[in-house]
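User: Is it possible to get a 3D structure for a protein together with its bound compound? The compound here is iron/sulfur cluster. I've pasted both below.
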Amino acid sequence: MLDVGRHPNIDLLAYSEVEKLEGRSGDFKVTVRRKARYVEEDKCTGCGACKEKCPTVVPDAFNVGLGDRKAIYSWFAQGIPSTHTIDPEHCRQLKGKKCGVCAKTCLAEAINFDQKDRLVEIGVGAIIVATGYDVFDPSQIFEYRYKEIPNVVTSIEFERLLSASGPTAGHAGRPSDLAVEAEIEALEKKAGRLQRAITKFEDKYVESSSAFSKKYQDGEYKDDKDRKRWADKYAEHLAILETIEPIKKKAEGFTVAKRLAFIQCVGSRDFRFYPFCSGYCCMHSIKEAIIAHEHETETTSTIFGMDIRAVGKGFEQYKIRGGNNSNITYIRGRVAEIMEGPDNNPVVTYEDTRERRVKSEEFDMVILATACAPGRGTIETANLLGIELDRYDFVKTDPLSPVDTTTPGIFVCGCSVAPLDVPESVSQASSASERAAEVVFQSDLKKEKAVA
Ligand SMILES: Cc1cc2nc3c(=O)[nH]c(=O)nc-3n(C[C@H](O)[C@H](O)[C@H](O)COP(=O)(O)OP(=O)(O)OC[C@H]3O[C@@H](n4cnc5c(N)ncnc54)[C@H](O)[C@@H]3O)c2cc1C
Ligand code: SF4
Ligand code: SF4
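Assistant: Yes, that's possible. Here is the predicted structure of the complex:
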């Protein structure tokens, strides 16, 4: 990625979207919307001082909502370019309120609230679509109770929990426990604010709150509005301290999730949704189970699947190594239902097809290996460029020319075509680049001949 950012022949138009396409193979005109970041790209040094001070906290989409970010943010730490962006949906200043804290903090003077979207036109010989895929929404399979049971998560969510740069710095904390910890933090913040207000009253009236409260309850200062505020704040503070104590006690027992269940083919190989195999999810579940075990050696993982598709050089050995060294058990069987047991533990009911028995087992966390679904961005881009989609809404390609779309000069690679893993996507990207280079070369040749 860094190489792309530095390459002299590559212009990277990040935070931009194609709006219009005109022309034909060898001579396209593309109109691109360069969205306003409200931060000057050439001035921003990526130091992050602005986001430290920004008071607006919103769910972090990069961490699939599991953590928070500020209204001024960088999408992720190693992003290219490293410039920050203001989210106009949430920024106080852009919403018409008073703020501008980031502008005061930024020593590079990069903040520009007057920046507007720009439309730029680019002449290109060929186009490569690489708009990828979306993750299947498992709440469509109601028996798995995703979103209803907090400790049922998707593979993407678990991947973020395992990541050192994720919301839990790589610890597989259970979402139900994280919610309790967030509640404690919010209550403590509120208690802190109330404590500061109470202290001001104590200083003003030179009296402790407990002594004042007794008098107030006995009917003294009845008509004194200021002292009523003091009494109310003191009562609220005591109520919060009382609420917080048992929650904190409960949180003392929290550890990382150690009994993991992975459920394969969630939305894939399922005629209600996508009949095809998503290809990469068996391997990423094994990978996540191995990483979880590396982080916490007591972790055990059970992978439920119709079969494990370890297709590729060395993949089968990886699967066996997971079983031998990382406490992974593979169970052949479809999970029928997930219910919530004690302590927010998901309970999985499944048929073990080898033993021909229906069983139930309790886990700390269940991870759903969700299907690779056609991307919304791919569908929109295909409509805009006038290229055809196949019956599942992936980009249609020629079986004998697998990176050629139905429009000459427009090529495609990666999960816009079909579910592919990273090495397959990268090698397809090389093929698509080669096909695009052929078109550009041929059209340059034609132009040269026409001039000669
Ligand atoms: C949980 C999980 C774990 C995985 N782990 C592995 C692994 O360990 N190894 C492995 O090989 N594979 C893994 N995969 C598969 C891997 O994610 C894919 O192979 C890979 O992301 C495909 O790359 P892509 O570039 O085709 O698509 P994407 O990664 O989806 O990238 C497409 C990009 O295009 C952008 N985009 C979409 N529409 C537009 C638009 N209109 N304009 C501009 N930009 C747009 C999207 O925002 C996105 O950034 C995993 C998948 C999942 C779900
Ligand atoms: S102006 Fe917007 S982005 Fe800047 S600090 Fe305030 S809320 Fe955050
Ligand atoms: S890769 Fe594995 S989990 Fe994913 S759809 Fe295929 S069989 Fe199911």
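The first strand starts at residue 16 and ends at 24. The radius of gyration is 28 Å.
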